């Protein structure tokens, strides 16, 4: 009995020691470590983070994953529906394959597609196709999958898992390649607006006085304009005929210039409260320059809040870029984005006959929701009172 009591006592001491070590780690953790622990408990935010990671991974390797190039088209596949992938042909399992598409016209001169089931066309992995530059400088022509002829050359039969547009271009390939714009413009625009907000809002809150008054009146002027019409007006001012790269840069600048005032006011309010703290006064008495006080003492004091604000601001940028491109004021051919792909949805008749053309809208909605859920998780994790 004594031995049993001793064992129970030793076990209880070990449990207490584990709890003590765990508490010490908790109290010794940095702010970012505490935020990370809280964020891991937010399942929806973690799922959104993983989903966004997959989407950005596919964006980086879009040219490789896409079976066709951006401008590859086939008149035979004009407004073609989603290609069905089969595994069994005439009762025999032969692996993933597709049938050739045939079409005929109905009484209303509309194309009616059907499958020619006389011959299967196997789907191959790592096939050669349209040349592209991976990461912008690695020349390659290998694509993740495709259909080859018996001699190894690209087949006329296409695999269009999300259908085709009116020119017979693969929607899946164009969605992947279009994500380069739809997923990067909001990030770059938000980053630029973040820098402007911290600089302008920081100067306004740190120095105060006449400087603060002038900056606040400028911010009020910016915020008095409705966002979308102002985006449209500035986008319409972009001259025609300029390169795709210049259009990309101008769209990013336009979106960032109109998104900083709200965050700048938040930064200003934080600076007004933090600049009276003892550690800021101590830094001033020590002769630290204003720039170092702002960068090393004030901004880190609410960096977690800024990151949450940025995460919640990205969806607005995505919707803004999509809206401008949908209206023809954003990216222009030969470039593409999810908004450009949705331009074919302006006609109700087109949507009724080709509903798969609305698929880019699903990608926009999923991305916006994922960023919102991730932002909510970060906001809850950064709240010190939870």
Structural commentary:
- This protein has 386 residues and is an alpha+beta fold.
- It folds into two domains: 74-169, no CATH class; 183-382, Orthogonal Bundle (MetI-like fold).
- The protein contains 16 helices and four strands.
- It has a four-stranded antiparallel beta sheet with strand order 1-2-3-4.
- α7 (209-224) runs antiparallel to α10 (260-274) and α13 (303-326) runs antiparallel to α16.
- It is flat.
Summarize the structure.
The protein is α+β, with helices and mostly antiparallel strands and 386 residues long. Helix content is 58%, strand content 13%. It has helices spanning 2-27, 31-40, 43-60, 62-65, 171-182, 185-207, 209-224, 227-236, 244-257, 260-274, 278-285, 290-298, 303-326, 338-341, 348-353, 359-382, and strands at 86-89, 92-105, 111-134, 138-147.
How are the secondary structure elements laid out?
Elements: H1 2-27, H2 31-40, H3 43-60, H4 62-65, E1 86-89, E2 92-105, E3 111-134, E4 138-147, H5 171-182, H6 185-207, H7 209-224, H8 227-236, H9 244-257, H10 260-274, H11 278-285, H12 290-298, H13 303-326, H14 338-341, H15 348-353, H16 359-382
Antiparallel strand pairs: 1-2, 2-3, 3-4
Helix pairs in contact: 2-16, 3-5, 3-16, 6-7, 6-9, 6-10, 6-13, 7-10, 11-12, 13-16
The rounded Rg comes to 28 Å
Q: Mind telling me the CATH superfamily name of the largest domain?
A: MetI-like
Oligomer: single chain
Number of strands: 4
How many helical stretches?
A: 16
Mean pLDDT: 82
CATH fold category name of the largest domain: MetI-like fold
Structural class: alpha+beta
Helical amount: 55-70%
N-to-C terminal Cα separation, in Å?
46 Å
From the coordinates shown, what is the CATH architecture of the largest domain?
Orthogonal Bundle
Number of domains: 2
- Largest sheet strand order: 1-2-3-4
What is the CATH top level name of the largest domain? Mainly Alpha
């Amino acid at each position: 009995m004594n031995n049993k009591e001793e064992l129970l006592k030793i076990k209880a001491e070990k449990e207490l020691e584990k709890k003590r070590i765990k508490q010490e780690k908790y109290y010794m953790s940095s702010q970012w470590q505490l935020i990370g622990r809280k964020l891991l408990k937010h399942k929806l935010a973690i799922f959104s983070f993983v989903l966004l990671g997959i989407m950005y991974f596919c964006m980086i390797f879009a040219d490789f994953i896409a079976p066709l190039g951006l401008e590859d088209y086939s008149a035979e596949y004009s407004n073609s529906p989603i290609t069905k992938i089969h595994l069994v042909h005439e009762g025999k399992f032969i692996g993933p394959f597709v049938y050739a598409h045939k079409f005929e016209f109905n009484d209303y001169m509309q194309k009616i597609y059907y499958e020619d089931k006389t011959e299967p066309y196997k789907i191959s992995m790592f096939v050669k196709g349209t040349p592209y530059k991976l990461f912008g400088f690695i020349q390659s022509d290998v694509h993740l999958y495709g259909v080859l002829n018996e001699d190894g050359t690209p087949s006329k039969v296409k695999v269009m898992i999300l259908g085709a547009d009116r020119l017979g271009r693969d929607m899946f390939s164009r969605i992947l390649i279009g994500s380069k714009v739809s997923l990067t413009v909001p990030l770059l625009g938000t980053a630029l607006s973040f820098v402007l907000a911290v600089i302008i809002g920081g100067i306004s809150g740190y120095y105060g006085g006449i400087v603060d008054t002038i900056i606040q009146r400028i911010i009020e002027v910016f915020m008095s304009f409705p966002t979308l019409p102002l985006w449209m007006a500035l986008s319409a001012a972009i001259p025609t005929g300029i390169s795709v790269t210049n259009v990309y840069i101008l769209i990013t600048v336009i979106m960032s210039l109109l998104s900083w005032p709200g965050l700048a006011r938040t930064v200003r309010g934080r600076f007004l409260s933090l600049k009276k703290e003892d550690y800021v006064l101590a830094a001033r008495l020590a002769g630290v320059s204003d720039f170092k006080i702002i960068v090393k003492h004030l901004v880190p004091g609410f960096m977690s809040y800024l990151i949450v604000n940025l995460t919640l601001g990205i969806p607005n940028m995505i919707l803004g870029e999509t809206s401008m491109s949908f209206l023809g004021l954003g990216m222009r051919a030969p470039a593409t984005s999810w908004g450009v792909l949705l331009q074919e949805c302006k006609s109700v008749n087109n949507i009724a006959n080709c509903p798969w053309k609305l698929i880019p809208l699903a990608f926009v909605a999923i991305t916006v929701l994922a960023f919102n859920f991730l932002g909510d998780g970060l906001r809850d994790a950064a709240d010190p009172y939870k």
